[in-house]
Amino acid sequence: CDCTPRCCCAPRPTPRCAGPRVRLVARRASHRIASRGRQVARRQRAEQKKKLGALGPPLSRPPWRYRPSARRRLGGSPWRRANAPVDRAQRRRRGRPRAQRANTRLHLAAWAMARRAAWAPAAALLLLSPPAAVARVAAPRRVVGASGRCQQLQDTYYSEEMRLAPGEMVFTKPETTPVTMPQGGEYYITGFEGEIVDGETLQSTPLTEIYDHHWILLNNVHKNRLCKGIEYVFGVGAESRNTPFDLPAGYGYPVAEGTEWGANIHLLRTEGLEGEDPYLAVKHCNECFYAPGKGDACNRQSNGTFQCCGDSCATGKTGKQSCKCPTAKGVSTERKGYKLKYTLNYTTGCDLEPVDIGVLAAPDCAAFYHVQRNNAEPVTVASAELSIDGAYDVVAATGHQHVGAVNLSVSVNGRLVCASYPTYGNQKGVAGDELGYLTHMSQCIGTAADAYTEGPLQLSKGDKLRVDGYYFVGDNDERIAPSKGGTHLNVMSYLYAAFAARGSSEARAQ
In degrees rounded to 5, what are phi and psi of residue 411? Predict the structure, then answer.
């Protein structure tokens, strides 16, 4: 072969012209590889910056082959040791940035593969293949605090299954309904949310099937400093799946090792109820109206109380469940299982600003109350007032109300400081947007997009804190149609507030 173009383009070049031909292919391929390497490096740097901004610094150093100190100890890069005679410019490239050093390795790989290949076109195809992507698992964020490194974690738990037939209800006692919480030491709770799900599929269940009157979590050490007797730590009702309770950064509810938790879960299955108007039948069941056959403790005097749909349901003379809402003839009596799903955000090993959580209930710390129909004055208000005994910062606050609510407002010394507003659903049978049901409560104080104010709300000793719960009691309430307005029994007006002693640790809060 005399190395003519025809000879060098043959399928298998002769040894005499394979050298120049292979080197030409390798040079062209290395340029393409270098261009690809620069593009990949730019994308990786952009992705790394985005990840670092969201997750904090990486937990470990990069692999040894990228560290210049290791390269020097081992006599340079692995490609340089294996192909030192090929790339005579490697010594000049050692001081270049990491991205350029990566390109150098690609150049060396191209030369080595092409030099050893017997078939130049196959070598070129291999060299032009895109590099394989390297998957990196994102670790939980680690934040250096006053006590060292800490971890932000999130766990999801499920309660024991509660089986109900149409018309039946459940009202659990915290002493006999333990709930699972993180184990293994002290931690801070920074966020909490929950909802009722199907016991088998674990999918969200609409309020039209199972009404979530309320669920609350208590522990054996918590005391409510705002209203005695309402010792709730976390708790919401029908709006729970759309209303998480989150604390701002730097704050947490402290939980000591060995703390025991229990739940009070109040659910009513409202399918197949008896009555000409199904919406009115559901309203009466959800609001604990009196009905014959609901048990010994449920009578006209206890109409609208938990004696007609609460903790007295299993205290009849027969000892059986007796608070069942009347169902229509022919309705199935088959029971279906439901669970409380709750997601907990918490930190371990962190030094956060501790907050206390309290509930201020209107009127006058009542667990529930009634509002009566009044078309002449269709908006009614119930109030509760508290005198502050120290200096505090309220960092988060959200209201809890029932169907018919207008808003829950908070005033300090007669001046309105925030309000929590309800949202009503618009779709029939859609979990989270149920027609005629209260599905969300906006934040009074917090960092959510719909929060009235970001806060914190500063309170001083002697300030008068007032909570006003407003309900609409006219017959024509378009917000809840086709459900019925007018009188509402067993309603609530709660303000859940997280507050910290002012000035105790401003640096940690920052």
Answer: -125, 150
DSSP per residue, 163-178: EE-TT-EEE--GGG-B
Could you give the CA distance from residue 60 to residue 63 in angstroms, rounded to a whole number?
9
Cβ(443)–Cβ(396) under 8 Å? yes
Q: Which residue has the tokens 């990491």?
A: 98
Taking residue 459's Cβ as centre, other Cβ atoms within 10 Å add up to 22
State the pTM of this model. Answer: 0.69
Residue of 360, 354, 356 lying closest to 399 (CA atoms) = 360
Q: What is the pLDDT along the chain (510 residues), one digit of tens a residue?
A: 455 555 445 454 444 455 566 566 667 766 777 777 788 878 877 776 666 554 444 433 333 333 444 444 444 544 444 445 444 444 444 454 444 444 445 444 444 544 444 334 333 333 333 333 222 223 333 333 444 578 899 999 999 999 999 999 999 989 989 999 998 789 999 999 999 999 999 999 999 999 999 999 999 999 999 998 888 898 889 998 999 999 999 999 999 999 999 999 999 999 999 988 999 999 999 999 998 888 788 888 989 998 888 766 654 444 455 678 999 998 988 999 999 999 999 999 888 999 999 999 999 999 999 999 999 999 999 999 999 999 999 999 999 999 999 999 999 999 999 999 999 999 998 999 999 999 999 999 998 888 999 989 999 999 999 999 999 999 989 999 888 889 999 999 999 999 999 865 453 444
Which residue(s) pair with 445 in the sheet?
Answer: 397, 453
Tokens of 264: 């009070």
Q: Give the span between the Cα atoms of 226 and 385, in whole angstroms.
A: 10
> For residue 41, what is the enclosing H or E element?
helix 15-55
Cβ atoms of 113 and 83 closer than 8 Å: no
β-strands 336-348, 464-472 pairing: unpaired
DSSP 140: P
The answer to whether residues 7 and 21 touch, using CB atoms and an 8 Å cutoff, is no
In which residue are the tokens 């919480």 written? Answer: 181
Based on the number of CB atoms within 10 Å of its own CB, is 255 exposed (0-12), middle (13-18) or buried (19 or more)? buried
Q: Please, is 281 exposed, middle or buried when counting C-beta atoms within 10 Å of its C-beta (0-12, 13-18, 19+)?
A: buried
